[in-house]
Amino acid sequence: MYKVIMAPTEGSDTERAAIAVAVKLARRFEADLRLVRVQTAPLVIEPVPRAPVLAITEETLRGERLARLRKLEALGTQCRALGEIRAMTALEDGPVPSSLRNYAERFNVDLIIMSSHSRGGVKRLTLGSVTDYLIRHTNIPVLVVKPPVTFIGATPQETFPRIVVPLDGSSLAEQILPQVIAIATPLNAIVNLLQVLTPETYAQKQIIQPGLPWWDADIAIAEEYLATAASRLAEAGLAVNTDVVLSDDTTTAILDYAKRKGADLIAIATSGAGGMSRFVFGSVADQLTRLSQTSLLVFHPKRVQIAGKTGVDADVQALVAFSFHDRVDIQPIHYVYERGWLYGRTSEGEKLATLEHNQWVAFEIDEVADTFDWRSIVVHGSFWVIHPRGSPRAEELWSKAAELVSRIVPDALTASDPVGFRQTLFRIAITDVRGREAKRKPLERNDP
Asked: Which of 95, 145, 188, 380 is the most buried (most CB within 10 A)?
């Protein structure tokens, strides 16, 4: 349940829909609403010849700040009157994106609500990039409001919205589910879980239709996966439907599905990474944020730091690459590191079939704070399936691997396993590790 909601504002009319949603949700959740505006320092540029000189005085700046404070407080008063809620206002100083992030962390904000300006070019650099920054650099769900708003009515009795939740079989994607439960329960929402299956080979791209051998297996696995995820939402008292869609374009398939179902909200998790990791993981969420005409709830869950040379580190995510003949594939994995080995689990399918022919793999772990503050590690090793039956040593190894992966999913390999179809345990023997990093160099000061 959300207790502190932050609504960034710049005082424009385009924010009315987002502010109205923030008021309604604050009232529905009995949460505090914090209206935050950021004032940046003025940019002074030398005037061109013969142009009148604009003198920016301290008195002028104080007057502008006072005017913004009055406008912000007037908005707070209006919100309190509309929703009978606790609404607080704050005028911060500094760069807009990082100031909003710091404020959210300082006041334990657990939901950010922002308007979508739907602008391109230079305008998007100054407006849309703030939304993108908060999604990527916080672990707070961001509700991107796109008018007309249909997912919340004036009273609970008027609210029966439909929320579409795309999942891809990864642990990362599933971390949106607690957020969906939190927002869907008080709205009496109906949830549609969706998995889009995309063709993996050139031959499959020629004929995208069910009934063929590869689709039969993939659809069965996807249906079982969605049914397991749906049971978690059903236990919370939500009405849930599941669908599997075949397409060669995940983003377009999600948008088309949401339109067909009359979705009021799309909820999705993103890795929030930059560079290649963002291309692989975050591209769908990024494209949805830009292209969707439906409001979105986007969540960037926390990651655990990369393990050191010794000890155990659980629930770290990486991209694993493997090849067969002239084809290279890349997939996300969650793993546990212990003493030179990486442990994880997967399901029967094309990945295992490929690795039976070539067990050599490479995977990459990225930690990106910003353009000049990042580190990337590439690991090479060999992939080994762990079998539960065989010699005493093999059974002991399987038990050890099962205990380790339970640190990622506590109910792993039990009757309550949320992804029970992932029954195959594996480990990767690390043969070499290579890393690169970039750090901001502190400015040197030459004191007199």
From this structure: 145
Which CA distances in Å does 202 have to 20, 196, 206, 284, 361?
48, 18, 7, 21, 23
Residue 276 belongs to what H/E stretch? helix 275-277
Q: Which tokens go with 261?
A: 């179902």
State how far the Cα of 350 lies from the Cα of 356, in Å rounded to an integer.
10
Give me the domain span that covers residue 416: 312-438
Residue 401 maps to which CATH number?
Answer: 2.30.110.10
Residue 286 and residue 170 in one domain: yes
Q: What is the DSSP string of 18-70?
A: HHHHHHHHHHHHT-EEEEEEEEPPP---PPPTTSPP----HHHHHHHHHHHHH
- Domain match, 201 and 227 both: yes
Residue 346 near residue 368, CB atoms below 8 Å: no
Q: What is the pLDDT of residues 369-392, one digit of tens each?
A: 666 667 778 888 888 888 888 778
Q: How many domains would you assign to the chain? A: 3
Does residue 148 have a cis bond before it (omega within 30 degrees)?
A: yes
Q: Work out the angle at residue 359's Cα, subtended by the Cα atoms of residues 356 and 362, and round it to the nearest 5 degrees.
A: 140
pLDDT at position 166: 94
d(CA 329, CA 222): 19
Model pLDDT for residues 197-245, shown as the tens digit of each residue = 876 543 444 445 555 555 677 788 889 889 989 998 998 899 999 999 9
Residues of the chain with pLDDT under 50: 43-54, 118-127, 201-207, 273-281, 304-315, 443-445, 447-448
User: Is 150 domain-assigned?
Assistant: no
Query: What's the pLDDT score for residue 281?
Result: 39
Pair of tokens at residue 143: 């509700």
Secondary structure of 59-126 in HEC code, one letter for each residue: HHHHHHHHHHHHHHHHHHHHHHHHHCCCEEEEEEECCHHHHHHHHHHHCCCCEEEEECCCCCHHHHHH
Output phi, psi for 337, to 5 deg: -100, 135
My answer on whether 160 and 141 are in the same domain is no
Torsion of CA 404, 410, 413, 418, to 10 degrees: -140
